[in-house]
Amino acid sequence: MIKKQLIFPGSKTPELQVNSVKIENWTLSLSKPKNFTLIIIYRGFHCPICCEYLKEFDEKIDKFSNLGTNLIAISTDNKNRAIKSYSEWGLKSINIGFNLTPEKALEWGLFLSRGIPNSSLKIAEPEIFVEPGLFLVDSNMKLYLSNIQSMPFTRPPVSELLTGIRFAIDKNYPARGTLKYLK
Prior knowledge:
This protein is 26% helix and 22% strand. By secondary structure, the protein is of the alpha+beta class. The chain has a single domain, classed as Glutaredoxin, CATH 3.40.30. The strands form two sheets. A seven-stranded mixed β-sheet has the order 2-1-5-4-3-8-9. Strands 6-7 form a two-stranded antiparallel sheet. The two termini are 31 Å apart.
């Protein structure tokens, strides 16, 4: 049995490797951002909220690039569903990763759900899929920020993420939430 894990800010993240619509083999350790890599975990093609959220990242990708932040959106979807997300959602710039394994999702502390036959878009959900999350990882593969959810709604606004990243860079602000135990 594989159990969900917790990655503390300031800790080295597990390696992450997925195929994507733009790069055959995307690997976190090879991402080499100036400042950060923002990993956006989305539920999959069946999720209308994911569609709107990723569109907003796609529209603002240059603002993230200007902050030295690479972006990738990843799901447990297969290649065909990932390509449909990219094309049918009208995405132009953001890289879409696919085939995140449930085991790797748990290693990153994400929630998993069992699919139901018809989602709100009347698209069948996969048998098992990942719930949303965000991971801001620094250039040394250390976690700076995480946001993990068990439901598709209440995600951090993209504009607030941009403001926060700008502040973190400008003020050399340390990762918060690093306390692992109390003495």
